[in-house]
Amino acid sequence: MCTWFDLCDARRHFAIVVPRRATTCPTLLNAIFALSSRHLSLHEQYDPYASDRYHQECLKHLTTISNDSSALTNDDLLAATILLRTLEELDVPLIGTDHEGHLLGIQLFMNTQNASALDPPSSLRQASFWVGLRQEITMAFATQRPIKVKLDHLFIDRSFSPADDDCWANRIVVHCAEVVQFCFGEVENRKSEYQRLVEYDYNWLRARPLSWLPIAYSEPDLSSGLVFPQIFYINHAVVIGNVHGALARALLMCHDESIPKIGPSRIRARQKLDNDIRMQVRELCGAALSNKQTIPAMFTACMGVTACGDRFVEYAEQKALLDILVKTDVEHMWPTASAQSHLKRAWGWEDGS
């Protein structure tokens, strides 16, 4: 499962550094065991209670850290909390709700870092931050609430200067977080902030390296059952960056306040906007389905489907969108049952259609 965490991390901290540090940190070791055993129990015959035992061992330590400032700067405990948050997400279908307990812990850890500190955080802490931010985006979107993680840390790079793929991906992930903040948070001068976000996306698209373009692309072919385009990218970071960019773009379009409210041009403008949104969702879904090794891209695709799926009117496309939600739930144990129900109602489908 380390690939889930190291998507935008060429140094592969969760695959290489975290296991090594777990040998001297029992809480981190138990977090690894808790997540791994839960994942095994969901996919095959494995003790379904093993994860709970390891989880309880973690909680014995983590429940005391809120009053311990030194613990909040402990990179091992932050990494453990990142792992346990993923466990929490996998457990949603089992317990029926998401208490966001470990997400609150991540926010506490990540917001402790002083944005004006002269000493930069460790590479593990930065790697954990980016994983935690992607988790925060998912939950903020799902619950339609503001982003609760600080986005003013000095190590966050929003520039367009030459950089590696990880940096380019993280730039657009931060942008996506700011878009979610715009959609669901309190924003002063929304008109100027909206324009700033649109311009950043435009400039990011123009400045990104040529390696960020697809290495292979084919248009949808409804006659052969191919509803979404096939879009193949060169590595995990490029996939994650592009799907977050597409999601952010679609969300911004959904909040476009320049559309006329009345008059003969309203319908035409609305139709064009809906077409543009559908195009972004098709690209998002196509990228997620094409790059099967980048599993979390499917989670981002589900967010796009949930947000914009009601704008699709063709049955073939509706069925394909629903299939993405079902596939993500069944194959990757990511809960989408609620989203499936909401879309079916929005489309006017009867239960079981």
TrEMBL record:
<dbReference type="GO" id="GO:0045944">
    <property type="term" value="P:positive regulation of transcription by RNA polymerase II"/>
</dbReference>
<dbReference type="Pfam" id="PF11951">
    <property type="entry name" value="Fungal_trans_2"/>
</dbReference>
<dbReference type="InterPro" id="IPR021858">
    <property type="entry name" value="Fun_TF"/>
</dbReference>
<protein>
    <recommendedName>
        <fullName>ARCA protein</fullName>
    </recommendedName>
</protein>
<dbReference type="GO" id="GO:0003700">
    <property type="term" value="F:DNA-binding transcription factor activity"/>
</dbReference>
<dbReference type="GO" id="GO:0000976">
    <property type="term" value="F:transcription cis-regulatory region binding"/>
</dbReference>
<keyword id="KW-0539">Nucleus</keyword>
<dbReference type="GO" id="GO:0005634">
    <property type="term" value="C:nucleus"/>
</dbReference>
